[in-house]
Write a structure and sequence with these properties.
Blueprint lengths: L15 H21 L1 H25 L7 H17 L2 H5 L4 H8 L1 H8 L5 H18 L8 H27 L4 H22 L6 H26 L4 H7 L3 H13 L5 H19 L4
Helix pairs in contact: 1-10, 1-12, 2-9, 2-10, 3-8, 3-9, 5-8, 5-12, 5-13, 6-8, 6-11, 6-13, 7-13, 8-10, 11-13
Length: 285
C-alpha cells in the first residue's frame, strides 16, 4: 500500500500590520543614519545617492518592464514625483530634529485620513493635530526654523500623495515592477540636485557604501513592505500605523544623533500622533 505523499506546509503570511511597522522602523532609522552623512555630502547629496542606489537595487531585483498603456505610465510617473517630494524631508532634517520632521510629515497621511470627512467628531482630530503644530511652532516652545517647517510640510504633501497613489500602483502589478520604475523616476528628478551640491564627493567609496545602507533601510525595505501591505489593507489603515513614525523617529534621533526633545515638543508629538490614530480608528468601515 502506497504511503500518502506528504504535503508541504504553506508559507506563513506576514500580517500586513507587521509589514507597515517594519517599514516605519526601517525608514526612521534610515533617515537618522542619512542625517549623519550630511557633513560629507549634504542633504541633497544624501537624497540623491539614496534614491539612485535604491533604484538600482530594485531594477536589478525586479527587472521591470515599462507598461504599454499610458495610464499606467502616468501613474508611475506621478508615484515617482511623490517619492521625490517625500525626500524633501532630508532638506528639513538639516534644520529640524528627526522626530520633529517626522511629526510634521505625518500631517500628510493625517490629511488623507480626514479627506472628504463631514463628521463633526473629525473636527476634534483636526483640532488636536493643529494643537500639536501650534505647540511645535507657537510662542510656547523654542521657535523652529521656518524653512525647516516649510520643507517638512512639502514632504508631508508628498507622503500623502504617496499613500493615495500606492494603492493604485499596487493594482498595476503585484511583482513590485511599478515601484522599481517609480523609484528610478524619483532618482532622475533628485540626483541632479545632489550632484550640483556635492559633485564628485558622491562617488567616494565611503559615501557609496553608506548610501547603500541608507538606501536599503530608508527606501528599498520600507517601500517594498508598504506596497505589499497596501495590497491587503486600505490606505487609511496604513496611515494610522504610520502614526508611530514620530515616536520611532524620536527614538532613532536619540540613539543615533543624541537629539533630545523638550517636554513641550513631546506633548506636540503626542497630539499629532493621537490625532492620526483617532482619525483612522473612528472612521466608518
Amino acid at each position: 500500500m502506497q504511503s500518502p505523499t506528504p504535503t508541504r506546509p504553506h508559507p506563513v503570511a506576514v500580517p500586513p500590520f507587521a509589514l507597515v511597522l517594519g517599514a516605519v522602523v526601517s525608514v526612521q532609522f534610515g533617515q537618522a543614519f542619512g542625517k549623519q552623512l550630511f557633513a560629507v555630502v549634504g542633504p541633497l547629496g544624501v537624497a540623491g545617492v539614496r534614491l539612485s542606489l535604491a533604484a538600482l537595487l530594485l531594477l536589478v531585483l525586479r527587472r521591470p518592464r515599462i507598461p504599454t498603456d499610458w495610464r499606467s505610465r502616468g501613474l508611475i510617473l506621478a508615484f515617482g514625483a511623490a517619492i521625490a517630494t517625500m525626500n524633501v524631508v532630508y532638506l528639513a532634517l538639516a534644520h529640524l530634529p528627526v522626530a520633529v520632521a517626522s511629526t510634521l510629515q505625518l500631517l500628510g497621511p493625517l490629511s488623507v485620513a480626514l479627506l472628504g470627512s463631514r463628521r463633526p467628531r473629525d473636527v476634534l482630530w483636526a483640532a488636536l493635530a493643529a494643537s500639536g503644530v501650534f505647540l511645535f511652532c507657537g510662542p510656547v516652545s523654542a521657535p523652529l526654523p521656518a524653512i525647516g517647517v516649510g520643507l517638512a510640510l512639502v514632504s508631508a504633501a508628498g507622503m500623502g500623495s504617496y499613500l493615495l497613489l500606492s494603492h493604485r500602483i499596487g493594482a498595476i502589478s503585484d511583482d513590485g515592477s511599478p515601484l522599481a520604475l517609480a523609484v528610478a523616476c524619483a532618482a532622475v528628478l533628485v540626483l541632479p540636485f545632489g550632484i550640483s551640491e556635492s559633485g564628485t564627493a558622491l562617488l567616494s567609496p565611503t559615501v557609496l557604501l553608506a548610501g547603500l545602507g541608507i538606501a536599503v533601510l530608508s527606501a528599498v525595505v520600507p517601500y517594498s513592505l508598504e506596497l505589499a501591505a497596501l495590497r491587503r489593507i486600505p490606505p487609511r489603515v496604513v496611515g494610522v500605523l504610520q502614526s508611530l513614525e514620530p515616536a520611532t523617529g524620536a527614538l532613532a534621533g536619540l540613539l543615533l544623533l543624541a537629539e533630545l526633545l523638550s517636554p513641550i515638543q513631546l506633548v506636540a508629538l503626542g497630539c499629532v500622533t493621537a490625532a492620526s490614530i483617532g482619525a483612522v480608528l473612528t472612521r466608518d468601515r
